[in-house]
Amino acid sequence: MSRCTAPVHGHRTASGRDNCPACRGGGYRTYGRYATYPSYTPKLSSSRGGSSSSGQKVKASWSSPGSNILYSPAEIRTLTPVRKNVVKRSELPDLRDVFLCHAWEDRKGVAEELHDILETKGVTVWFSEKDVQLGSLLLREIDKGLAKSRVGIVLVTPSFLKRVRGEGIADKELSALLARDLLVPILHDTTYEALREVSPLLGSRSGMNTIDDTMEEVADKLAELITVV
Q1: Are 141 and 209 found together in one domain?
Q2: Poorest-confidence range of 138-142, 146-150, 192-196?
Q3: How far apart are CA 221 and CA 129, in angstroms?
Q4: Catalytic residue numbers?
């Protein structure tokens, strides 16, 4: 391959360029006496999963080899200790897979939708619409549901936030439930900022969000979380 002679002889004239075995006929431009070469813009390599600041989604350690379900770093951090307790509790008899806590107002809407999707995936659900009497206190409902299930999910909606605010649940009371690492919040039509306003402790725990995943995808993650081979 011919080498450019510019470092030694320069290319400030047309004859200098023409005498160069590498650049004769090349695509440079001259402005006055000086030559400028075609600008080079390096290509930036792209990576799957967006920018590194947002975190690349990955498979979980409990995913099966053929699984295509991906989790965000925040979901992995939250669900890993929950998964460890799910495995421990898998040996206990007569437990349902998932306890679904929700506001009473959501029982015929989004809560029933999630319940039905989970059951189509073979997940047994402790569902307050069927298993809790009308008027039961939220904390008592959660405590009872967790005792009978391998993992608990709290469906956080605007109606749920109103219920938490109305019952005046203290973080001291809620901390005893969260300390078990069995409770995962699932946000729907609301934000963590709104949740932290009524329950800073529950709002400090990452979970899943239907802004990021469809309800079907949330159910897939829950089904994978409780599957112990």
Answers
A1: yes
A2: 138-142
A3: 23
A4: 173
Q: What is the CATH number of the domain that holds 152?
A: 3.40.50.10140
Residue-wise pLDDT tens digits, 44-84: 333 333 333 357 999 999 999 999 999 999 999 999 999 99
In whole angstroms, how large is the CA radius of gyration of the chain? Answer: 29
Can you point out the beta strands (E) in 3-146? 29-31, 34-36, 96-101, 125-127
Those residues with Cβ within 8 angstroms of residue 135's Cβ, 6 or more apart along the chain or in another chain: none
178 pLDDT band, cuts 50/70/90, is confident
Question: What pTM did the predictor assign?
Answer: 0.70
Number of domains into which the chain is organized:
2
215 located within any domain: yes
Residue 171: domain span: 73-226
